[in-house]
Amino acid sequence: xxxxxxxxxxxxxxxxxxxxxxxxxxxxxxxxxxxxxxxxxxxxxxxxxxxxxxxxxxxxxxxxxxxxxxxxxxxxxxxxxxxxxxxxxxxxxxxxxxxxxxxxxxxxxxxxxxxxxxxxxxxxxxxxxxxxxxxxxxxxxxxxxxxxxxxxxxxxxxxxxxxxxxxxxxxxxxxxxxxxxxxxxxxxxxxxxxxxxxxx
Length: 200
What we know:
By secondary structure, the protein is of the alpha+beta class. It is built from 9 helices and 5 strands; from the N terminus they run βαββαββααααααα. The model has no long low-confidence stretch (mean pLDDT about 95).
């Protein structure tokens, strides 16, 4: 397998999942501005959508979209899935909320916008994170062990730290537990991220 990623992008969630599973895979960094890969390739030839993640499977099939990649990994590996009859559905429900609400709400912070727009976005994300914290089932989103949904949320919490968004104590604890996991540290090390003061 081969993962195309950009440091601190949502593809970090997929990177963490692969590290957690101990799978053998290649990694290639993508410059989303130039649409070139680290080896000089045309990223648009790999994913015409122009963004990460992209996971190329061993049989040559290509997966895009963060939720799709995470769901595919969890479907074959129960150790990073949510258990129970509705486990997969609950994981998809949470990841969809993270993607369509929290992830999207960060847009004014990543792109040119007014101070008022940035302040409004920070307040929106803070409220969304409070909602998530209020529905946690344990030290992680669904209990005592992290799932693919936690990996995605963890990236959002790194973004929150970067942009000075208020984070509930329960999620600060979850973020810090995630940072101590060897797989998380391995993925962040490869991506050139600093654990205490995350930068690109």
